[in-house]
Structure formats: C-alpha cells, structure tokens
C-alpha cells in the first residue's frame, strides 16, 4: 500500500499519535513514550491504548523503537509520509529574510562571491550545511585582465557581456613581468570578445599554434596558466559551494556518524562531476526533500537534503541551492527558506545583465 493510501486509511487517533511522535522527534531528537502522549492527545485514552496504536504504526514500518521498552521514533518511511502528507510549511520570518537579503552587495557583480555569501547566510539561518551550485558561465566574454598580486600569485579577471565578473587567483609561471601580463591580456582580448569560455579554449589552442611567433613564451605560459583555472579537471568542483560543515559535525558525538558525515563532505569537496546534484532538481521547479537513503549522494551519512533549483530569465534551470542536515530537520521552517533563497538567487542572476 502506498503512503498516500496508508495515511488516508489511518483513523484520527492513529494519525494524531503518529503526527505527535514525528513532531516531537523533529523538535528534540528523543524517542516518544506512550505516557507522555496521553497528556497531549485531544482524546483521553489510556497509555495501554496508545501503546497498541504505536505497535500498529511500528508494524506498518512507520515507527521504530531504538531500545527495548523505550519510546518510538519515526523511520525514514515514516518521515517521508509525514513530509508528504502532514507537514505544515510556515513562512520565512522577517529576520531570516533580512539575513539572506543582506548578503547581496548592491554594486557587486561578482557572482561567485555573492553565492559564497548566500551559502554562508543560508547555513547560518538553518544551522545546517548549505550547498550552492553556481551556474556555469556561458555568457560571451567582454574583457580579460591579469593582475599581479605577488611574485607567486596573480588574478585573472573575466568580464562578461551580461555585466557579470569572475575573479580567480592562480600561480603564474616563474619570471612573469608587467609587460608579459599586458601582452597575454592583449592577445586574449584580441580573440576572446564575443566568445564563451568553452569556445575560447578551442580558439586559444588554434591561435597559439598558428601565431606562435607573435606571442612570447612568457605570455604564452601565462595564457595557459590563467585559463587553466577555468578549464582544468578541478574546475567543476569549484561550482559547488559547501558552507557550514561544522553545523553537521557538531550535531553528534557518535564516532560512526561523525565518520559518515566527514566522508560526505570529503566526497562533495572532491566531486569532479556534480551533474548528480543538478539531476536532483531536474523534475521542474520547486523544493524537493530527500530523506536519508532516498538520495544516493547522501545515503551513507544518513542525512536529509532539502534542495531547490533556480532559474535564469529564460526560465532555464542553471543551478540549485540546498541544505543538508540530520533527518530530524525542521522541515516546516527550512523548506520555505530554501525556496526563498532559490528564488532570490535566480532573480539576482537574471537581473545581473
């Protein structure tokens, strides 16, 4: 029997017992006993009657008893049924809204910096770990510049036709001079305008092969090193911004759980191919909730994920925002926060041009 039918066939007493157990567990993380339920149920019944209802719910796979003679906690199936059928979603509070909106710099067109601040704010507001999948930049390039920061550090700045700016720090080849930086920038600007990043990569290879004599070795090395910060094999992982891991690590003292959560974050930070994360949102707009093992990305850590895509002005999904936390997340509060953040990011990016 599917969960929707199961919920509709539960009587009022069973539904109320189930709902109170789940809500109490999400609030405290503790098992709920029959005696405490008898004090809060709308119908006056004995503890024995409540125990019978709890046993029935356990038989249906909706509750579990972590210890003998202890109270009950919801199973993942129980949490899923609660989220789908009984969850009451609130509104984003003015305080949370203000915290999230304060991350937007009115004159800041640098998308990665903005998304990093939004990720930190989302993590702080929800007390979970936040994920922000940055959009892949495919707008045409308007201008490229190299800026020397130190002997071993330089900045490559890309300005796009839609007004967005991307800055990346990298290690330049040894021996760079101000003139080689100017030459490298001039070379790139002579061929880059109007091309996307992926188109420019092909063009650079062709131009350097056919005009090798016209650009000196130092500038040529700088072009390769500067462009590599976008096109090397680690670039994809930089699109996934993870903030607030300490919130999850601080949730538990259980060594096994800590190890699983650490493995989750290590996996996220190493991940080259983050297409799986976008696949979570490919069934249209709106918030989706993955509880524990329902999501293969996070199943090992026993965590839940609340995720929503965001869209550009053409209503095309270009990224996503989400919150990871323990399965006993305050879903009613976090769902609207994730939804609001996704809409805010989509609007910021759409209005950036």
From TrEMBL:
GO biological process: negative regulation of DNA-templated transcription
Keyword Hydrolase: no
A Pfam match: HrcA
GO molecular function: DNA binding
Keywords in alphabetical order: Repressor, Stress response, Transcription, Transcription regulation
InterPro entries to which the protein is assigned, alphabetical: GAF-like_dom_sf, HrcA, HrcA_C, WH-like_DNA-bd_sf, WH_DNA-bd_sf, WHTH_transcript_rep_HrcA_IDD
Residues of the Heat-inducible transcription repressor HrcA C-terminal domain: 114-335
Family recorded in the similarity comment: Belongs to the HrcA family.
Function recorded in the entry: Negative regulator of class I heat shock genes (grpE-dnaK-dnaJ and groELS operons). Prevents heat-shock induction of these operons.
Name the record gives this protein: Heat-inducible transcription repressor HrcA
Naturally occurring in which organism (per UniProt): Litoreibacter ponti
Gene that encodes the chain: hrcA
